[in-house]
Design brief:
By secondary structure, the chain is of the alpha/beta class. The protein is built from 21 helices and ten strands. The structure holds adenosine-5'-triphosphate (ATP). It is found in: Cell membrane.
């Protein structure tokens, strides 16, 4: 097997993304943004950003659940106070125990301080439990707050937002950001707890003897600095491993997902993919081992320097003791304080790293929410549109971003209520785009569409949409039951079974559905237990039924029969013809035999409207429609095969 450029780039070089930017799998992806920013920032830059991130996290948490946020804040502070109180009580106990006199008397004298120590220790434990409980309840609320906010925006933005590259990337990063918000809030709480503990110890130590504070810092800072550096190193390695991780994610998908499973087997790709996986993991393991060596060196160095500093503090304490400048109890308390401070500092430094990196992702989320506002549709005037009399498309042009030619180019046409009209034209001539503009799914770059002579913008957008049903070419297979898949065609109405079945019958879907294991209640999603999948044509029937459900005043059907068998196709077009004269239908199809009955046919070419008229008029004109129709009809123009006589008959 020869090695391709992709394999070499993916498995061996971190810089491959820059060297081979055209390979989609090597493009920078969203989930690295925070990590990379974190890796590129110096340790001091991390501290500079902390206050803002902490404030953001508190704001989100407050919005999500005020009660639990307050509980977490209060218990965190309380816990810190208890830690300081515990240290002071410890010192009191030691003072009593180290005093002159008989031991039983000293113990009795120490009892009140001991009782205080026991109480604050118990309180601290209790506060810890309350914090944990409140945090557990807070996490899902924070998740709901940010995720719901994201979904409110993603379901409201105009369709053209999804055409912009930057928007799609932005949205992916924002999705990662919602996950990070929960972690950010948790990391901020832990950080504050660590800092509160640290502060409490520092205050207690100063109260015991001011000289002890610098001693405490000397003993704790080397370790803290080393652990921050080690965390930084881990993130740098993580950021540099982007290509490997993407490659691994890709391989995971290829080997474990349903879509690739058939080809994997038919081409015998199992060994090939497993080999690729082994190569990626070989590189990954080497890098992780090297990282482990560096991290261990760094933390060992911190421990050694910290140990020496701690030793020096103890020597200093000894000297002060000998000198009589510090009581024995204060010195003993200082030893305990150093250990408590080291524990709190270890928590705080780890959380600083967490807050910073999760904060970067959260920044993506917050940025997306701001930028997405540009894509929200303008609010309508609120006027409810009356029943359709006439639909006019006036000089409508629509250009997609980064496309030189307009997809719809200065089209003007009118459809009267009750008409069935067809949009016809070759692939890419702009039929679906024009239909999407009429369906209010896309905004034209120029021109207007009018409902009864007034531009769409003057009507209430939601109520306008209520009057229009659309069956799109790229229909969606909703992972719901068959009944729900049809019922969502009129989601505001009661999902009555008789209506659903009637719509299914009009789309030739009823018989297919009743044959499913649970009939209309069959779940159409194979990834769930008892879920079923349908053939392409069966799905298309259900989609058409969804469009028929509402008997909308304007029904737009874009290629509704491309996968249907002849019988189903005939039934579907019969149902469309049933609307003629009563309700308005816009039909897009390449099967021109089905548009012969249309009142009018509009022929598009490269976005422009080039012909219009009835079938007979257009055939008589001998233009593009006549050419396409004749071409297709020629395919059927064969002499019927001679039917052999039934067996046993005499010829
Ligand atoms: N989302 C999009 N972004 C960019 N270009 C697009 C997009 N959708 C369609 N186009 C382009 O716009 C032009 C018109 O496409 P449209 O889908 O409207 O054609 P159509 O007549 O419906 O084609 P078909 O018969 O193949 O369904 C084509 O050149 C197509 O490549």
């Amino acid at each position: 097997m020869t090695e391709t450029a992709i394999e070499r780039g993916g498995a061996t070089r971190d810089g491959a993304a820059a060297a081979e930017p055209l390979l989609p799998e090597l493009r920078a992806v969203w989930w690295e943004a925070g990590v990379r920013a974190r890796a590129e920032a110096g340790v001091l830059a991390v501290f500079a950003e902390l206050p803002r991130l902490v404030a953001e996290a508190v704001r989100v948490s407050w919005r999500a659940d005020r009660l639990r946020t307050s509980i977490v804040a209060l218990t965190t502070v309380g816990s810190g106070v208890m830690a300081g109180g515990g240290l002071l009580a410890t010192q009191r106990v030691l003072v009593e125990l180290f005093a002159a006199g008989p031991t039983p008397d000293k113990v009795v004298a120490a009892l009140p301080a001991l009782a205080v120590l026991a109480t604050v220790t118990a309180l601290r434990g209790g506060l810890g439990i309350v914090t944990g409980y409140a945090q557990n309840g807070l996490a899902p609320r924070v998740r709901q707050e940010v995720e719901r906010g994201l979904f409110e925006v993603t379901t409201a933005v105009r369709l053209d937002a999804f055409d912009a590259d930057a928007f799609a990337d932005d949205m992916e990063r924002a999705s990662r950001g919602t996950e990070s918000t929960v972690s950010l809030v948790q990391a901020v709480t832990n950080l504050l707890a660590g800092l509160a503990g640290l502060l409490a110890v520092a205050v207690a130590v100063v109260l015991i003897h001011p000289l002890l504070l610098p001693a405490l810092l000397v003993a704790t800072l080397p370790r803290a600095w080393a652990s921050l550096r080690a965390g930084h190193l881990t993130y740098q390695t993580w950021a540099a491993g982007s290509v490997r991780r993407r490659r691994r994610g890709l391989l995971h998908g290829l080997m474990a997902e349903r879509v690739s499973a058939p080809e994997l087997r038919s081409y015998g790709l199992r060994r090939f993919l497993l080999d690729q996986y082994d190569r990626v993991m070989g590189v990954e393991t080497g890098i992780q081992l090297a990282l482990a060596r560096r991290v261990t060196t760094m933390t060992s160095l911190g421990a050694v320097v910290g140990g020496i500093a701690t030793g020096a503090v103890y020597v200093l304490l000894g000297l002060l003791l000998v000198d009589g400048r510090i009581p024995l109890a204060a010195a003993a308390t200082c030893v305990i304080a150093v250990q408590a401070a080291q524990r709190s500092l270890a928590v705080a430094t780890y959380q600083v790293d967490q807050v910073y990196s999760e904060g970067q992702h959260f920044g993506d989320y917050a940025g997306f929410m701001n930028r997405a506002a540009d894509y929200l549709p303008a609010a309508g005037s609120g006027a409810a549109p009356p029943p359709l009399r006439e639909l006019s498309v006036r000089e409508v042009t629509l250009s997609y971003p980064d496309r030189k030619e307009a997809a719809v180019d200065d089209v003007t046409l009118t459809v009267r209520a009750g008409e069935t009209v067809a949009f016809v034209g070759e692939n890419g001539s702009g039929k679906s785009t024009l239909a999407a503009v009429i369906a209010t799914l896309r905004m034209p770059s120029a021109g207007v569409v009018e409902w009864n002579g007034r531009p769409y913008a003057e009507w209430d957008a939601d109520r306008l949409r209520d009057r229009i049903a659309v069956v799109t070419q790229e229909y969606h297979k909703w992972p719901f039951t068959a009944a729900t898949n049809i019922a969502i065609g009129d989601v505001e109405a009661e999902a009555r079974q008789d209506r659903i079945e009637a719509a299914a019958a009009r789309a030739a879907a009823h018989d297919t559905i009743v044959e499913l294991p649970y009939g209309y209640e069959t779940l159409l999603d194979r990834t769930f237990a008892k879920g079923q999948d349908l053939s392409g044509g069966q799905w298309q029937r259900i989609t058409a039924a969804r469009g028929f459900l509402r008997d909308a005043e304007l029904l737009i059907m874009d290629e509704p029969s491309s996968a249907l068998d002849p019988r189903a196709e005939d039934a579907l077009f019969q149902s469309i013809r049933d609307r003629q004269g009563r309700l308005t239908t816009i039909l897009i199809t390449h099967r021109l035999a089905n548009v012969r009955h249309a009142d009018r046919i509009f022929v598009l070419d490269r976005g422009a409207l080039v012909e219009s008229g009835s079938h007979d008029e257009l055939m008589a004109a001998g233009g593009r429609y006549a050419e396409l129709f004749t071409l297709q009809a020629a395919g059927y123009d064969v002499a019927p095969p001679r039917v052999p006589p039934p067996r046993g008959t005499v010829g």
